[in-house]
Specification:
about 280 residues; 434 Repressor (Amino-terminal Domain); 6-stranded mixed beta sheet; 4-stranded antiparallel beta sheet; 6 helices; about 20% strand; Bact_Cytoskel_RodZ
Length: about 280
């Protein structure tokens, strides 16, 4: 025991707060507050939450948060807490799966290419044959054509009308194919669910909350992309442009209070656990 819990409890008592009062102020569940006062962190969801809850508790009762966190670091109990890692649950089997799909697609592309080449060659030959038909056969006339005094030179009783030459038609170029993004669910392991984002040139996140919930967004370098991981209040929303990352990890304490949108497309949860981690791998 480092005395951390006693100091926090004494400060709370001096403020005249009960644990119920402090729960209302900090939005931290009463059992977590009691665990901090008893320096029993076994029920906590992780070491990250312990530090965050101690900081909020200290600020609520008027103590120096840095000093209280220093006391926490001296405690031996927190060493047993599970450290959060950011390694994405990527497996070699996914890579083999992608190669298998590519091997199935290549022969189809080659066949389609040869069919297009044959069609183009046939069309070009038919156009060349049509362009050679430029002469007009005219039957000879044995009769002599005479001009009277009032007839202008060049005018005859029979006029030859040239057949119009058919104009070549040019087929318009096909319109370029417009790709639509693919946000695909891959797998779930424990509290980690993995998705992939493909066929899109940008990666924009929007997170809406309709209840108090802890939210944190990190990149592959474990850098926080939100101003700071924190408890977002009911009705809060954040938007992030993460087009330059390889993947993100979104830590969601209460999925039922959180909607995640990727370039406007709503992400569907595949796990009911609270909290849970959402990994999105961006394949540019």
């Amino acid at each position: 025991m480092t005395g951390l819990g006693d100091r926090l409890k004494e400060a709370r008592t001096a403020k005249g707060y009960s644990l119920d009062d402090l729960q209302t102020i900090t939005k931290i569940q009463k059992r977590y507050l009691s665990g901090i006062e008893n320096e029993d962190y076994s029920m906590m969801p992780g070491a990250f939450y312990v530090r965050a809850f101690i900081k909020q508790y200290s600020e609520a009762v008027g103590l120096d948060a840095d000093e209280m966190l220093a006391l926490y670091k001296e405690s031996a109990n927190h060493d047993n807490l599970e450290e959060e890692t950011i390694a994405p649950p990527l497996t070699r089997s996914r890579g083999l799966k992608g190669n298998s799909r590519l091997n199935e697609t290549i022969p189809k592309i080659i066949v389609a290419f040869f069919i297009i080449v044959i069609i183009v060659v046939v069309w070009v030959l038919s156009q060349q044959a049509a362009s050679k038909q430029t002469g007009i056969d005219v039957e000879p006339d044995d009769k002599l054509v005479t001009m009277d005094n009032n007839q202008k030179p060049g005018n005859t009783e029979e006029e030859v009308v040239d057949d119009p030459i058919e104009e070549e038609t040019v087929e318009p170029d096909p319109e370029p194919e417009v790709k639509e993004q693919v946000l695909a669910y891959e797998s779930t392991a424990g509290r980690d669910s993995t998705y992939t984002l493909t066929d899109v040139d940008e990666f924009k996140l929007k997170i809406d909350t309709f209840g108090d919930t802890w939210i944190g967004v990190q990149n592959e370098k474990k850098e926080e992309l939100t101003p700071m991981a924190r408890v977002m209040k009911n009705g809060e929303s954040i938007e992030l442009d993460v087009s330059d990352v390889e993947f993100v990890r979104i830590r969601v304490a209460v999925p039922d209070y959180t909607n995640i949108y990727v370039n406007g497309e709503k992400l569907e949860y595949h796990s009911n656990l609270s909290p849970q981690n959402i990994y999105i791998e961006y394949k540019k």
